[in-house]
Records
---
Amino acid sequence: HAQATTSGAQRLARLLITLADRHGRPLDADGTGPEMVITLPLTQQELADLALVARATATRALADWRKRNIIQTGHRRITIVDPAALHRLAGLEL
């Protein structure tokens, strides 16, 4: 049901927020900054599958968010740089 009313990018944003809540750790050692590192080694295909979106949709959304400095990606690692922006993309309030 939720799938019909949300875009693929929205579902992907919500997935990243959920993963950060469950498997994230603060980027700063003291935990004071907003940045969260998702420590699960997921491929873009796995992220797409979990968010129920096409891989192309996930790839496009992640590239867009990288350009806008909302996330940073490395090899099987995602850092949420701007959690507030990601929550807005997900249609959620922070």
Note: The chain is about 50% helix and 15% strand.
---
Amino acid sequence: AYTMLSGDLTDCVTGRFDLITANIVADVIIRLCRKAAEYLNPGGRFIASGIIESREPEVLTALAGAGLSVTTRKEREGWLCFSCSRLS
């Protein structure tokens, strides 16, 4: 069984989750990193995509600052997707 929510993570979420996804621009992903880390279960994944390659350094800095570690990086035609896990 699973629960799916749509909308701004910071507006409608309580609890912890095994998977959180965000397919949107880098600015929003940067803003959501800390909240995503807070809402992840141990062993959970945060998948962030829709990141243009030139914004990669900023997004990686924000993910690391939120305690998230990139476990997989995918690139396609200049767009990036990161799969991340929580460090602690």
Note: The mean pLDDT is 91.
---
Amino acid sequence: MKPLSIKKKVLFLILAVIGIVAASALALTYYLYQHLYIDKQIDSLSLQGKKLAEIYYTHGKDTYFTDRMKWANDSSQANVIFTDDPMELSSGLPFDTNTNDNLITFKERQKLLQGETVVLIREHPQFHQDILGIAIPVFSNNDDLSGTIFLSMPLSDVYEPFVQIRLTLSISILLILLLIFLIGYKSSNQIVRTINKMKEIAMEMESGDFSKRMAVTKKGDELNQLSRSFNKLSSTLEKVEQHRREFLANVSHELRTPLSYMKGYAEGIEEGIIDQKKGMQIIKDEATRLSRLVHDLLDLAQLEGDSYPLTMEPIVFAQLIHDVLDQMAFVADKKSITFKRMLEEDCIVYGDSDRLQQVIRNLLDNAIHYTPPGKSISIELQVHQSIAELKVTDEGNGIPKEDLPHVSERFYRVNKARTRKDGGSGLGLAIVYQIIKKHHGTFDIQSEPGFGTTAILQLPNTPFIEDVQIK
């Protein structure tokens, strides 16, 4: 069986709501008529009959009582009579003395004899119309039933004042239901249009086009919020696709270049046009570069996963920094670059020693590479409350403001020429960012063209609960 579309489901829901409202309105109308208006008429007739009964008990069936009966009959919508013989009511009196049909039943006559007021709503035997009647018994001094006061009125007279109220209520309900239907129909169309548009864009996205967007208005309803979220998803996917293409292009470039050099020099050596010793050295250097690139790619892929193992332990951070500085002193001396060390020696951090060494080595490698000969690099370590902060500042040319948000992206280089002289794979800072993230720390770059660059690391010097799970 073919499933119902959203539009049909919404329309069915609207019709169901309309049906429920209509049924409720009919029930309410019946309740108002039956339990409020008719009950009010019964109470009014009963009160009128009881007052006439009181007059009868006070004055008897004299002229005053007769006048009051006549006045009550003329001044109200009800037909008011008094009969000395309640049995007459069972024969249809006082309307017709020749009919054999009963107006009240034997059981109701018994109630009159017992002093109970009888309320009846039924068809009159002569006029064939529904009437509302109240029969009130009156008794003599010796407790014998001496007569009955009977007040009656056609139900049509009771119903007529309520017709206008019922008509007004029906029209109001009809208008409300029509309004509900129109609003629901318009809303369902809007929902279906939005979903169909999303479906079209999703199909475009399946084919690789992430440029399409949903139209969004300033309204804050759920459909606009959904459209904004969908647009955000599309934008994110577009960026992911763009980064994927850039990544593949960068990897291809980075792998192709050393392979081309290695192939070219190998052919040159084979043909005897390149000195063998010099050619082998270049091939060895390119192989080392290629190995480093592949190693960095594997590192980054692992670090971006959720299950990369880290050995978290307390580390004397200043000593670890000293060790890396000593290892890289030879490279710095070749460019006459000096290290200015300002380290808080008792700083303790919780982390993976090998990975933190890799972080510092990458930062120092960048600083040495971009610092002119004869300049210095400042390494400062301080503890602020529960945070260890490391700053590595060089005296290079700095980074343009527009490039700062991207320097930790994979393969991103400030120098777009991507010359071999600039070196590096463009993965160093991306690896730094991922390692620091794994350590629950932060990584930031501050720079201004002409005034150098400062890399800032912040690491907690207290263990995290997650660290215990990583070990």
Note: The radius of gyration is 49 Å.
---
Amino acid sequence: IFFLYNFLISLIIPFALVRHMLKSSSFGEKKLRAFEKVGFFQGEKSSNKSIWIHAVSVGEVNVALKLIQDLEEILESPNFILSTTTLTGAKKAKENLSKNLKHVYFPFDLKFICKKFISFYNPSILLLVETEIWPNLINVSSEFKLPVVLVNGRLSDKSLKKYQRLSSYFKGSFNKIDHAFVQSKNDYERFFEAGINKDAMSVSGSIKFDINLEPVKNFNETEVNYYKEKYLFVCGSTHPGEEEILIDSFIDLKKENKHLVLAPRHPERFDEIKKIVNEKNLSNILYTEVSSNPNIKSDVTIVDVIGRLLDFYQIADCVFIGGTLVDHGGQNFLEPAIFNKPIISGRSTYNFDEISKKLSDLGLLKFVSNKDEISSIVENIEAISDSQREETNLWLNENRGASEFISKKVCKEFNLI
């Protein structure tokens, strides 16, 4: 298994590098930075100890940034390395760079590349956000006596079964994790079954409750006027196979002044979605065209930028959470919940299982399975009541504090102070 794993990683590297470079320009990224993934780093070798945090994409970067904020309040002049896998994650990270924070791309999980990375950047601790289990990296970190800590850890039943099928390979990696701060008791039990020792885990809750989700950009006056008279059905972080169902349900919707907002999870799909909308004979506009075309009538807005989803959630009449009509486990339910919006979702919610169940209990979330159920629920859904709003806000407040708890314990247990 070890040989096969390394062989497959080696095969993937050339294709992943080319794909990264081809997509770089659309994110304002330098193409050559892709080679950081194979151990070609810019600048001089680091002599200062730093805290290395790895976050795959935008959601995990938001968690990492909150953790960095709390660590900066505890530590004196800390240095941070924030690594990401995706270009969208990199864009988010680079928007928040400071003199103490450097962004790099995460190395491919081959032993010699991981060794080069650790030798070059000289981290004193590695914090992996959510479920980033990379066997070679964890093994190399152990050789370097570099503590590995999992933060905001979550593990679904589906993922656990995958790891258990290869337990002879992955169990050793889980066992080498120095500490895991996990989101729930269920995650605690699953990580224990995967191989992390119980005395090396803490149930800390989710840092996603701590993130400030207030929109920071907001709409300009032209955009506000464009959307203010419309009934907005906002579909966030959608995946392939979902847009067709959502569009068909929207066509059946009898709401007056209805308007569909489609915000795909992956920005490279903008053109693909525009083609689907055109095939359904719906007039549409790209979000970036609204300000210069305020009088164009449209049925659909395609959100062709990243970082504006919260703004749409704030003005939405109803929100759909993507990655739930397909078997992806769902995206962040807390984002529309913070604005007390009615939410609908498919039934694949294993990434946010407990949160989605709680939102359902609070009456904010309705589960759907097909286009007819979507159009029926959206047609009849009511605005959130004052009592629901109060109960939801109380629940959100009660669950805050994970980031502060983790930051203090990491500093204490691993002598960072």
Note: Residues 215 and 310 are 6 Å apart (CA to CA).
